[in-house]
């Protein structure tokens, strides 16, 4: 063969000054190229080998070469060239040791999720190994029995929630299902015990000072601050996060200082988000339907005045209902879960008696003098959200000798009467 022509290896692409029996780079045999014109069809052999390694049949390779590359080659010629290159469908299979090493490499990463069909394809295309599919299946059963068992069960694998004890992580979030009616809820739950620490209805849950007031009130009542606090990325949580980090700055544990607060998406704040779904089915749905009926009847249009009036008439009743919901939840028994390392039991018992469940209190004692450094501006806010409306409605109730409601029926009657008096 003329040495002036450029020679290259069709397997690795390495260039050589002359065509030899073996490639200096990859060591593959090049004898099958002795009768070919490399300068005329250099890409044909590379493409045929690539399509062969991808698992296409001989007939498909011939068709792809003609349609995609304009190279017309007969089926017999294709088989002859591939056989000369040492490429066979069922002969010269790779050794078991080489296949095993490749599988072990894949099992260290995302390959641990592969079934035997996907693994077989990876071995052929990524590692250029010749292996039978049933052989890969048997090797996977031996090397990754747990993965094979999980795939056979065809079940979604959930991550396990871990918590070292009560006050290790507090989950805080707002609930906006009643916001179209002017009522905003805020809640907090302990991750280990699932004890609801606060559940409050107010005019807003977007004001940082309001959320900070809820947090400081809870800390005062319990006398502890959590090791970690988790919220979503809303701006209403900024002041509370700053207070948490300030109160933890002088501690020397791993999560002290700025690490004591954790931002995350709402979907990953799973403890409180899951509890909201329970709350929706067990409590909130009633209020949503009641207010929706008032809206459909034309007594509620979503204006600022109507929302203030609704909060004035229903706020205390809803808050008593929330307190009852929180009290019942904290005293009911939770069944053990396979998707959480936290034990089952009564939330109050889990929170106050962690030693009975092989755990410990992870909170830090707090002195009341430390909390005095944070002013509580929420105390001056009107319950209905508008001081002027609050003053007017108080005067209307006193002047017309109306009674404060105790149940939702009397709240509805008071709402309709005040709406008529105010001509809203």
Q: Can you offer a commentary on this structure?
A:
The chain has 424 residues and is α/β, with parallel strands linked by helices. It has a 5-stranded mixed beta sheet with strand order 5-4-3-7-8, with helices on both faces. Strands 1-2 form a two-stranded antiparallel sheet. Helix 5 packs across helix 6 and helix 6 crosses helix 7.
Low-confidence stretches: 1-6, 36-40
| Mean pLDDT across every amino acid position | 86
- The sequence of SSEs as H and E is EEHHHHHHHEEEHEEHEHHHEHHH
Helix content: 40-55%
Write a brief structural summary.
The protein has 424 residues and is α/β, with parallel strands linked by helices. The chain contains 15 helices and 9 strands. It folds into 3 domains: 78 residues, no CATH class; 58 residues; 254 residues, Ribonuclease H-like superfamily/Ribonuclease H (Nucleotidyltransferase, domain 5).
Give the secondary structure arrangement, pairings included.
Blueprint: E1 7-8, E2 15-16, H1 42-53, H2 58-69, H3 75-84, H4 96-107, H5 116-125, H6 133-143, H7 145-153, E3 169-175, E4 184-190, E5 196-202, H8 208-222, E6 224-225, E7 228-231, H9 238-247, E8 261-263, H10 270-296, H11 304-330, H12 347-352, E9 364-365, H13 368-371, H14 387-399, H15 408-422
Parallel strand pairs: 3-7, 7-8
Antiparallel strand pairs: 1-2, 3-4, 4-5, 6-9
Helix pairs in contact: 1-2, 4-6, 5-6, 6-7, 8-9, 11-15
């Amino acid at each position: 063969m003329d040495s002036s022509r450029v020679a290259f290896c069709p397997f690795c692409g390495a260039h050589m000054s002359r065509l030899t029996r073996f490639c200096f780079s990859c060591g593959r045999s090049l004898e099958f190229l002795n009768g070919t014109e490399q300068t005329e069809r250099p890409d044909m052999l590379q493409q045929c080998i690539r399509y062969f390694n991808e698992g296409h049949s001989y007939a498909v390779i011939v068709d792809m070469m003609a349609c995609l590359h304009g190279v017309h080659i007969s089926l017999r010629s294709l088989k002859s060239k591939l056989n000369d290159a040492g490429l066979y469908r069922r002969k010269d299979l790779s050794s078991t040791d080489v296949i095993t090493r490749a599988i072990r490499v894949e099992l260290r990463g995302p390959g641990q999720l592969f079934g035997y069909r996907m693994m077989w394809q990876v071995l052929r295309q990524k590692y250029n190994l010749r292996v039978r599919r049933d052989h890969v299946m048997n090797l996977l059963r031996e090397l990754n029995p747990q993965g094979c068992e999980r795939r056979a069960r065809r079940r979604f694998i959930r991550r396990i929630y871990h918590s070292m004890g009560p006050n290790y992580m507090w989950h805080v979030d707002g609930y906006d299902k009643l916001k179209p009616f002017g009522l905003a809820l805020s809640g907090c739950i302990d991750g280990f015990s699932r004890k609801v620490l606060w559940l409050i209805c107010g005019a807003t849950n977007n004001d940082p000072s309001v959320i900070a007031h809820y947090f400081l009130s809870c800390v005062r009542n319990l006398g502890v601050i959590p090791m970690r606090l988790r919220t979503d990325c809303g701006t209403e949580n900024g002041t509370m996060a700053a207070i948490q980090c300030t109160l933890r700055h002088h501690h020397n544990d791993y999560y002290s200082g700025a690490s004591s607060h954790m931002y995350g998406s709402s979907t990953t704040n799973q403890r409180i988000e899951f509890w909201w779904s329970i709350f929706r089915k067990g409590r909130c749905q009633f209020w949503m339907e009641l207010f929706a009926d008032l809206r459909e009847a034309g007594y509620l249009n979503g204006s600022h005045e109507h929302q203030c009036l609704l909060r004035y008439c229903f706020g205390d009743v809803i808050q008593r209902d929330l307190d009852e919901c929180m009290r019942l939840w904290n005293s009911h028994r939770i069944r053990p879960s396979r998707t959480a390392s936290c034990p089952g039991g009564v939330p109050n018992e889990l929170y106050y008696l962690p030693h009975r469940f092989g755990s410990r209190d992870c909170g830090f004692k707090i002195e009341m003098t430390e909390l005095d450094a944070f002013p509580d501006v929420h105390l001056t806010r009107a319950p209905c959200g508008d001081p002027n409306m609050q003053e007017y409605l108080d005067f209307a109730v006193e002047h017309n000798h109306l009674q404060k409601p105790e149940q939702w029926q009397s709240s509805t009657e008071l709402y309709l009467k005040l709406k008529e008096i105010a001509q809203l």
